[in-house]
């Protein structure tokens, strides 16, 4: 069966302040599933893939900083292909190809489909993805793409342009690709649509050996372990530039269903069922205005239309929806992410200060889900004091075991091994103190509570 590789990356700028370098847009739980529960884009797409019959054939290619978050949202067994460093799409897809070939032992003649991790589509979109195997076989093309039938002359999307003299495809039909056009003017987009051009949704498929041959010609290792070790030496370049634009023959299949890139606050709020999420009020005379508040501070929006207000520990955004596409122009990377989701829970930074005496103090509120645990680890350059404010759990420090609950205070000296498991939802305030000229680093001895029990808690 064909393999699916979902690319999960992103810098977290376009949906700031909810998204950041550690929590990109695909992880924001702002959509609803069929049962009315809050889900993220990656949860929605992964569920659709499983419903389409791709369970066991899908992989997520992602950076090391996103692995905990993905496992926290999709479960510990989700198949991941981990990039050692952030690179562009060509290195990421090369690494995925090496993984499928050398680790999963996938037949080189097998079809591999690559798609973004966050398209907002109908379930039947994945039937079109499944058809790419047949498109490659029947057309003899090097690559097979999916093009969305345009509903209006958009200036935001790239276009797949059919070969001159070719017929425009009907629904599910294929065309020979003559070229591509990136974000044309509205007038140019109208002409492209008249010629049968399709929106490029970033989905393509190839036979695994096609990618392996390109890698071999460039001297790129086909072994996942070797490539991962050399990964940072690869040129950071997109798959479009390195492969798609050089392919001898490309076919595209037309999809005429619903598709949207939820990459801006403007497009995302169009798919949100509630005008307000979190604590606050949107007055009744507001039109097309959305409030998304992740803080405990109430936010009130009165008499504003076509506006998005978003608040998180990372900051506050107030923007006219049409102007929200300019957000990347104003957001820098000079602040640490103030909120992180982890596989075991979450962390919220409350205060981060340095003092004249050379001391750095970081205060965080930490939540650990019931039954989850933090591994057995130590801080190289920070001591910690935990004040438990909610729940109960098990705590071990340098081999000494104790039970903890709300009201307890524990002190963890620098370079002291410690771990914790939540019996029920556990929260504590952590105050880390150490010299500001030394960046804190963590060393982990055991990653799971089971390993801690086996090695540290034997009678």
TrEMBL record:
<dbReference type="InterPro" id="IPR051161">
    <property type="entry name" value="Mannose-6P_isomerase_type2"/>
</dbReference>
<dbReference type="InterPro" id="IPR005835">
    <property type="entry name" value="NTP_transferase_dom"/>
</dbReference>
<feature type="domain" description="Nucleotidyl transferase">
    <location>
        <begin position="5"/>
        <end position="274"/>
    </location>
</feature>
<keyword id="KW-0548">Nucleotidyltransferase</keyword>
<dbReference type="InterPro" id="IPR011051">
    <property type="entry name" value="RmlC_Cupin_sf"/>
</dbReference>
<dbReference type="Pfam" id="PF01050">
    <property type="entry name" value="MannoseP_isomer"/>
</dbReference>
<dbReference type="GO" id="GO:0008928">
    <property type="term" value="F:mannose-1-phosphate guanylyltransferase (GDP) activity"/>
</dbReference>
<dbReference type="Pfam" id="PF00483">
    <property type="entry name" value="NTP_transferase"/>
</dbReference>
<dbReference type="InterPro" id="IPR029044">
    <property type="entry name" value="Nucleotide-diphossugar_trans"/>
</dbReference>
<protein>
    <submittedName>
        <fullName>Mannose-1-phosphate guanylyltransferase (GDP)</fullName>
        <ecNumber>2.7.7.22</ecNumber>
    </submittedName>
</protein>
<dbReference type="GO" id="GO:0009298">
    <property type="term" value="P:GDP-mannose biosynthetic process"/>
</dbReference>
<dbReference type="InterPro" id="IPR014710">
    <property type="entry name" value="RmlC-like_jellyroll"/>
</dbReference>
<keyword id="KW-0808">Transferase</keyword>
<dbReference type="InterPro" id="IPR001538">
    <property type="entry name" value="Man6P_isomerase-2_C"/>
</dbReference>
<feature type="domain" description="Mannose-6-phosphate isomerase type II C-terminal">
    <location>
        <begin position="342"/>
        <end position="442"/>
    </location>
</feature>
<dbReference type="GO" id="GO:0005976">
    <property type="term" value="P:polysaccharide metabolic process"/>
</dbReference>
<dbReference type="GO" id="GO:0004475">
    <property type="term" value="F:mannose-1-phosphate guanylyltransferase (GTP) activity"/>
</dbReference>
């Amino acid at each position: 069966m064909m393999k699916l590789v979902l690319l999960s990356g992103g810098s977290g700028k376009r949906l700031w302040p909810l998204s950041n370098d550690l929590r990109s847009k695909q992880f924001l739980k702002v959509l609803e599933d069929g049962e009315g529960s809050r889900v993220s884009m990656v949860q929605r797409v992964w569920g659709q893939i499983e419903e389409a019959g791709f369970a066991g054939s899908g992989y997520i290619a992602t950076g090391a900083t996103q692995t905990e978050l993905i496992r926290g949202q999709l479960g510990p067994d989700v198949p991941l292909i981990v990039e050692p460093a952030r690179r562009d799409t060509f290195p990421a897809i090369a690494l995925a190809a090496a993984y499928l070939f050398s680790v999963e032992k996938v037949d080189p003649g097998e079809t591999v489909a690559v798609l973004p991790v966050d398209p907002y589509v109908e379930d039947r979109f994945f039937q079109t993805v499944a058809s790419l195997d047949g498109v490659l076989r029947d057309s003899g093309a090097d690559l097979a793409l999916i093009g969305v039938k345009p509903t209006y002359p958009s200036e935001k999307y790239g276009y797949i342009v059919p070969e001159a003299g070719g017929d425009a495809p009907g629904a599910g039909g294929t065309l020979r690709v003559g070229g591509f056009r990136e974000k044309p003017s509205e007038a140019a987009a109208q002409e492209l649509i008249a010629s049968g051009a399709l929106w490029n949704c970033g989905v393509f498929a190839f036979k695994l050996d096609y990618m392996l041959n390109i890698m071999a010609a460039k001297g790129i290792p086909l072994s996942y372990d070797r490539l991962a070790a050399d990964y940072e030496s690869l040129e950071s370049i997109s798959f479009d530039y390195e492969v798609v634009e050089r392919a001898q023959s490309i076919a595209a299949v037309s999809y005429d269903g619903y598709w949207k890139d939820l990459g801006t606050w403007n497009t995302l709020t169009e798919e949100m069922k509630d005008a307000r999420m979190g604590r606050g009020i949107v007055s009744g005379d507001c039109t097309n205005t959305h409030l998304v508040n992740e803080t405990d501070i109430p936010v009130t929006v009165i008499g504003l239309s076509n506006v998005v207000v978003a608040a998180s520990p990372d900051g506050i955004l107030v923007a006219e929806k049409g102007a929200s596409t300019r957000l990347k122009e104003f957001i820098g990377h000079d602040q640490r992410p103030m909120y992180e989701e982890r596989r075991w829970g979450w962390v919220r930074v409350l205060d981060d200060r340095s003092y004249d005496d050379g001391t750095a103090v970081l205060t965080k509120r930490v939540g650990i889900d019931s039954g989850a645990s933090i591994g057995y680890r130590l801080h190289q350059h920070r001591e910690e004091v935990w004040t438990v404010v909610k729940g109960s759990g098990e705590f071990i420090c340098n081999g000494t075991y104790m039970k903890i609950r709300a009201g307890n205070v524990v002190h963890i000296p620098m370079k002291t091994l410690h771990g914790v498991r939540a019996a029920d939802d556990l929260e504590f305030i952590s105050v880390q103190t150490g010299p500001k000229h030394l960046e804190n680093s963590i060393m982990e001895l055991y990653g799971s509570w089971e390993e801690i029990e086996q090695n540290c808690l034997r009678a």
